[in-house]
Amino acid sequence: MRLKKALLIIDVQNDFCPGGALAVSEGDKIVPRINKYIKLFSKSKLPVFASRDWHPVRTKHFKDFGGVWPVHCIQSAKGAMFHQDLKLPRDAILLYKGMDPDKDSYSVFQAEDSRGMKFEQLLNIFGIKELYVAGLATDYCVKSSAVDALEKGLKVKLLIDAIKGVNLKAGDSEKAIQEMSKNGAKKLTLKDIQAKK
Ligand code: VGL
Ligand code: ZN
Predict the structure, then answer these.
(1) Would you say the CB of residue 140 lies under 6 angstroms from ligand 1?
(2) What is the pLDDT of residues 57-96, one digit of tens each?
(3) Is the CB of 54 inside a 6 Å radius of any atom of ligand 1?
(4) Largest CB tally within 10 Å, which of 43, 78, 95, 197?
Protein backbone atom coordinates (compact mmCIF):
# COMPACT_ATOMS: atom_id res chain seq x y z
CA MET A 1 0.00 0.00 0.00
CA ARG A 2 1.20 3.49 -0.75
CA LEU A 3 1.96 5.59 2.27
CA LYS A 4 -0.41 8.40 2.99
CA LYS A 5 1.39 11.67 2.53
CA ALA A 6 0.92 15.21 3.80
CA LEU A 7 2.58 18.50 2.93
CA LEU A 8 4.10 20.33 5.90
CA ILE A 9 4.78 24.03 5.31
CA ILE A 10 6.86 25.47 8.10
CA ASP A 11 6.77 29.10 9.26
CA VAL A 12 6.39 30.99 5.96
CA GLN A 13 5.76 34.17 7.92
CA ASN A 14 6.55 37.84 7.36
CA ASP A 15 9.20 38.01 10.08
CA PHE A 16 11.22 35.25 8.39
CA CYS A 17 11.06 37.00 5.01
CA PRO A 18 13.09 39.99 3.77
CA GLY A 19 12.00 43.11 5.71
CA GLY A 20 10.98 40.98 8.71
CA ALA A 21 12.47 40.92 12.21
CA LEU A 22 14.40 37.68 11.66
CA ALA A 23 14.68 37.75 7.91
CA VAL A 24 15.98 34.66 6.17
CA SER A 25 17.85 35.70 3.05
CA GLU A 26 15.54 35.06 0.09
CA GLY A 27 12.97 33.51 2.42
CA ASP A 28 10.21 34.85 0.19
CA LYS A 29 11.69 33.26 -2.95
CA ILE A 30 10.37 29.83 -1.99
CA VAL A 31 6.73 30.97 -1.82
CA PRO A 32 5.83 30.43 -5.52
CA ARG A 33 7.45 26.98 -5.36
CA ILE A 34 5.53 26.08 -2.20
CA ASN A 35 2.33 27.18 -3.96
CA LYS A 36 3.05 24.61 -6.66
CA TYR A 37 3.47 21.86 -4.07
CA ILE A 38 0.20 22.99 -2.48
CA LYS A 39 -1.58 22.58 -5.82
CA LEU A 40 -0.23 19.05 -6.22
CA PHE A 41 -1.31 18.00 -2.74
CA SER A 42 -4.71 19.64 -3.01
CA LYS A 43 -5.35 17.95 -6.34
CA SER A 44 -4.58 14.59 -4.77
CA LYS A 45 -6.83 15.44 -1.79
CA LEU A 46 -3.91 15.08 0.58
CA PRO A 47 -3.71 17.23 3.72
CA VAL A 48 -1.68 20.42 3.90
CA PHE A 49 -0.34 21.46 7.30
CA ALA A 50 1.02 24.99 7.83
CA SER A 51 2.80 25.97 11.03
CA ARG A 52 3.47 29.38 12.48
CA ASP A 53 6.01 30.49 15.04
CA TRP A 54 3.64 32.10 17.57
CA HIS A 55 5.42 33.76 20.48
CA PRO A 56 4.21 35.63 23.53
CA VAL A 57 5.79 39.06 24.12
CA ARG A 58 7.98 37.64 26.89
CA THR A 59 9.79 34.40 26.21
CA LYS A 60 13.25 32.97 26.91
CA HIS A 61 13.47 32.51 23.14
CA PHE A 62 14.21 36.26 22.79
CA LYS A 63 17.55 37.98 23.45
CA ASP A 64 15.96 40.33 25.98
CA PHE A 65 15.04 37.37 28.20
CA GLY A 66 18.15 35.22 27.81
CA GLY A 67 17.68 33.68 24.38
CA VAL A 68 19.44 34.21 21.07
CA TRP A 69 16.77 35.77 18.88
CA PRO A 70 15.49 39.27 18.25
CA VAL A 71 11.79 39.73 18.94
CA HIS A 72 9.82 38.03 16.14
CA CYS A 73 6.51 36.37 15.33
CA ILE A 74 4.53 37.86 18.20
CA GLN A 75 1.09 36.24 18.36
CA SER A 76 -1.34 37.96 15.97
CA ALA A 77 1.16 40.68 14.95
CA LYS A 78 1.85 41.42 11.30
CA GLY A 79 5.24 39.70 11.52
CA ALA A 80 3.54 36.45 12.50
CA MET A 81 1.16 36.45 9.53
CA PHE A 82 1.78 34.13 6.60
CA HIS A 83 3.55 35.72 3.64
CA GLN A 84 0.83 37.37 1.59
CA ASP A 85 1.58 35.35 -1.55
CA LEU A 86 1.29 31.97 0.16
CA LYS A 87 -1.84 30.34 -1.25
CA LEU A 88 -2.98 28.00 1.48
CA PRO A 89 -6.02 25.87 0.69
CA ARG A 90 -9.17 26.64 2.64
CA ASP A 91 -8.89 23.36 4.51
CA ALA A 92 -5.21 23.70 5.44
CA ILE A 93 -4.58 22.63 9.02
CA LEU A 94 -2.96 25.51 10.88
CA LEU A 95 -0.45 24.82 13.62
CA TYR A 96 1.00 27.13 16.28
CA LYS A 97 4.27 26.74 18.17
CA GLY A 98 6.56 28.65 20.48
CA MET A 99 3.85 29.73 22.93
CA ASP A 100 5.71 28.41 26.00
CA PRO A 101 7.62 31.35 27.57
CA ASP A 102 10.26 28.96 28.95
CA LYS A 103 11.11 26.97 25.81
CA ASP A 104 12.45 27.47 22.29
CA SER A 105 10.17 24.84 20.70
CA TYR A 106 11.63 24.67 17.19
CA SER A 107 9.96 21.43 16.22
CA VAL A 108 6.51 21.29 14.75
CA PHE A 109 5.99 18.25 16.98
CA GLN A 110 5.69 20.83 19.76
CA ALA A 111 2.98 22.61 17.78
CA GLU A 112 -0.78 22.31 18.12
CA ASP A 113 -3.86 23.36 16.20
CA SER A 114 -6.26 26.08 17.34
CA ARG A 115 -8.08 23.57 19.54
CA GLY A 116 -4.93 22.36 21.26
CA MET A 117 -4.59 19.12 19.31
CA LYS A 118 -0.92 18.16 18.97
CA PHE A 119 0.61 17.69 15.52
CA GLU A 120 1.35 14.00 16.16
CA GLN A 121 -2.28 13.32 17.14
CA LEU A 122 -3.44 15.04 13.96
CA LEU A 123 -1.08 12.88 11.89
CA ASN A 124 -2.51 9.78 13.55
CA ILE A 125 -6.09 10.86 12.88
CA PHE A 126 -5.30 11.46 9.21
CA GLY A 127 -3.23 8.27 8.98
CA ILE A 128 -0.20 10.14 7.68
CA LYS A 129 3.00 8.10 7.32
CA GLU A 130 5.07 10.40 5.15
CA LEU A 131 5.77 14.14 5.37
CA TYR A 132 6.86 16.38 2.51
CA VAL A 133 8.61 19.25 4.25
CA ALA A 134 9.01 22.83 2.99
CA GLY A 135 9.52 26.25 4.57
CA LEU A 136 11.69 28.21 6.98
CA ALA A 137 14.17 27.92 8.46
CA THR A 138 16.25 24.99 7.19
CA ASP A 139 18.69 25.13 10.10
CA TYR A 140 16.09 25.43 12.90
CA CYS A 141 12.44 24.52 12.59
CA VAL A 142 12.77 22.50 9.37
CA LYS A 143 15.68 20.49 10.74
CA SER A 144 14.20 19.95 14.15
CA SER A 145 10.82 18.91 12.73
CA ALA A 146 12.29 16.55 10.14
CA VAL A 147 14.57 14.86 12.67
CA ASP A 148 11.67 14.41 15.12
CA ALA A 149 9.47 12.99 12.35
CA LEU A 150 12.15 10.45 11.40
CA GLU A 151 12.66 9.53 15.02
CA LYS A 152 8.94 8.83 15.32
CA GLY A 153 9.12 6.46 12.36
CA LEU A 154 7.62 8.71 9.71
CA LYS A 155 9.18 9.00 6.29
CA VAL A 156 10.45 12.43 5.32
CA LYS A 157 10.87 13.99 1.91
CA LEU A 158 12.86 17.19 2.20
CA LEU A 159 11.76 19.60 -0.53
CA ILE A 160 15.17 21.14 -1.11
CA ASP A 161 13.90 23.65 -3.65
CA ALA A 162 11.38 24.97 -1.11
CA ILE A 163 13.43 25.58 2.06
CA LYS A 164 15.77 28.40 3.16
CA GLY A 165 17.98 28.81 6.22
CA VAL A 166 18.99 31.54 8.68
CA ASN A 167 22.72 30.70 8.58
CA LEU A 168 23.71 32.45 11.80
CA LYS A 169 27.01 30.77 10.96
CA ALA A 170 27.96 30.25 7.31
CA GLY A 171 27.15 26.72 6.19
CA ASP A 172 24.51 26.03 8.87
CA SER A 173 21.85 25.17 6.28
CA GLU A 174 24.14 22.79 4.43
CA LYS A 175 24.99 21.09 7.73
CA ALA A 176 21.32 20.86 8.61
CA ILE A 177 20.53 19.21 5.27
CA GLN A 178 23.34 16.71 5.87
CA GLU A 179 22.00 15.93 9.32
CA MET A 180 18.47 15.37 8.05
CA SER A 181 19.79 13.13 5.26
CA LYS A 182 21.91 11.17 7.70
CA ASN A 183 18.78 10.55 9.75
CA GLY A 184 16.95 9.21 6.71
CA ALA A 185 15.32 12.19 5.00
CA LYS A 186 15.24 11.94 1.21
CA LYS A 187 15.87 15.07 -0.83
CA LEU A 188 13.30 15.90 -3.46
CA THR A 189 12.50 18.69 -5.92
CA LEU A 190 9.35 19.64 -7.82
CA LYS A 191 11.05 18.38 -10.99
CA ASP A 192 11.58 14.95 -9.43
CA ILE A 193 7.87 14.72 -8.67
CA GLN A 194 6.83 15.95 -12.10
CA ALA A 195 9.21 13.51 -13.80
CA LYS A 196 7.51 10.60 -12.02
CA LYS A 197 4.06 11.42 -13.37
C1 VGL B 1 12.69 29.60 13.99
C2 VGL B 1 14.41 30.89 14.73
C3 VGL B 1 13.64 31.38 15.74
C4 VGL B 1 12.16 28.63 13.01
C5 VGL B 1 11.90 30.06 15.01
O6 VGL B 1 10.93 28.43 12.98
O7 VGL B 1 12.96 28.06 12.24
N8 VGL B 1 13.95 30.01 13.86
N9 VGL B 1 12.38 30.96 15.86
ZN1 ZN C 1 10.87 31.84 17.07
Answers:
(1) yes
(2) 999 999 999 999 999 999 999 999 999 999 999 999 999 9
(3) no
(4) 95
